Amino acid sequence: MNPSRGHVAGLPQWNRCAVMGVVNVTPDSFSDGGKWFDSEIAIKHGLDLVTEGADLIDVGGESTRPGAPRVDEAEELRRVLPVVRGLASENVVVSVDTMRASVAEQALAAGAVMVNDVSGGLADARMVPAVAAAEVPFVVMHWRGQSIDMNNRAVYGDVTTEVVTELRTSLDRAVAGGIAPERIVADPGLGFAKQAPHDLRLVAELGRLRAELGRPLLVAASRKRFLGRILASTDGSPVPPARERDAATAAVTALAAREGAWAVRVHEVRASADAVRVVHAVETATEPGTDPGPYPATGPGADPPAGRSASAGEHG
Ligand code: PMM
Q1: Considering only Cβ atoms within 10 Å of each terminal Cβ, which end of the chain, N or C, has fewer?
Q2: What are the structural domain ranges in the chain?
Q3: pLDDT tens digit at each of 316 positions of the chain
Q4: Whose CA is nearest to atom 5 of ligand 1?
Q5: Gap between the Cα atoms of 24 and 21, Å rounded
Q6: What residues are in contact with ligand 1 under a 6 Å CB criterion?
Q7: What's the 302 CA to ligand 1 centre distance in angstroms?
Q8: Pocket of ligand 1, candidates 24, 57, 141: which has the most ligand atoms within 8 Å of its Cβ, to mutate?
Q9: Are 288 and 281 in contact, with CB atoms under 8 Å apart?
Q10: Nearest atom, ligand 1, residue 220 CA
Q11: Which CATH class is domain 18-283?
Q12: What CA–CA distance (Å, rounded) separates 166 from 16?
């Protein structure tokens, strides 16, 4: 295990970078809007992601794409609760992606075990006390304001330093509000009040973010605009749509895992699940002895996702 990856109290301990699969129960997310809007389909999708290697599933009912208006609370609850309940009843480790304390509380009552708040507790003054009272893990993301006008706030002199400083303030607020530090995850908030060069710089400095923030790091690059920009700029081709950015996402997963990220948050799980396992195998590789075995380590992190097995007759 990368000793500095960290452990989040209240969650299983994975001996490699964890993979959080995304289920957006929304009609309008930038990445997969509308696909999983029906509860039954969303539950089935979450279970499929687990089969593909997801360690936990993040369920959200409000799009945070740039320019998105807020969804009202009743609608968010209607979207999220049946899906949380359905997945939790199948023993899936469920996180709820919400900025509302009321949604977090009801999702926890429905079986979620973690709260992922893209505002890091800033959008709803009741969020930190609610999470503190529930004694559950909390993702604190770097955030400069609601999505409706966040692009106007994408102004930085030194993006990494400013993200560290601002995120530390949110982390300190969470701890001061009673959330145990060992339950807190930090997230640089790629794509939130950031332009593509800011995101890229933050990915380049993940090791520094991890070291300076001192908390397990969640990296959520999946399908984001900066990846589209990179892919477009290689040969002058247009920016590929969000769903054609999964291979690029898996590349970030490998980089993040190697830099000691605690988890990655992704829409397409299979490639990232493979990537974290490859990184784990590389990190634990030892001088081959007489019997290196087909897989270099044992334990949950080393197991391939369900349905995978080594084939005879392949190159070693
Ligand atoms: N990004 C989105 C939604 N939730 N949560 C965290 N912790 N970090 C993120 O960067 C993040 C998030 C953007 O929307 P998506 O669900 O379509 O990826």
Answers
A1: C
A2: 18-283
A3: 445 799 999 999 999 999 999 999 988 777 776 777 789 999 999 999 999 999 999 999 998 887 778 899 999 999 999 999 999 999 999 999 999 999 999 999 999 999 999 999 999 999 999 999 999 999 999 999 887 777 888 889 999 999 999 999 999 999 999 999 999 999 999 999 999 999 999 999 999 999 999 999 999 999 999 999 999 976 778 899 999 999 999 999 999 999 999 999 999 999 999 999 999 999 999 988 766 555 554 455 556 676 676 576 777 7
A4: 118
A5: 10
A6: 22, 24, 29-31, 60, 64, 97, 116, 118, 139, 141, 187, 189-190, 218, 220, 222, 265
A7: 27
A8: 141
A9: no
A10: 10
A11: alpha beta
A12: 28
- Confidence (pTM): 0.92
Distance CA 134, CA 196 (A): 36
What is the secondary structure of the chain as a DSSP string?
Answer: --TTS---TTS---SS-EEEEEEE--S--TTTTTTT-SHHHHHHHHHHHHHTT-SEEEEE-S--STTPPPPPHHHHHHHHHHHHHHHHTTT--EEEE-S-HHHHHHHHHTT--EEEETTTT-S-TTHHHHHHHHT--EEEE---S-GGGGGGG---SSHHHHHHHHHHHHHHHHHHTT--GGGEEEE--TTSS--HHHHHHHHHTHHHHHHHH-S-BEE--TT-HHHHHHHHHTTTPPPPPGGG-HHHHHHHHHHHHHTT-SEEEESSHHHHHHHHHHHHHHHT-----S---SSS--STTTSPPTT----TTS--
Residue 276 C-alpha to ligand 1 middle, in angstroms?
Answer: 19
Which amino acids are annotated catalytic? 224, 265
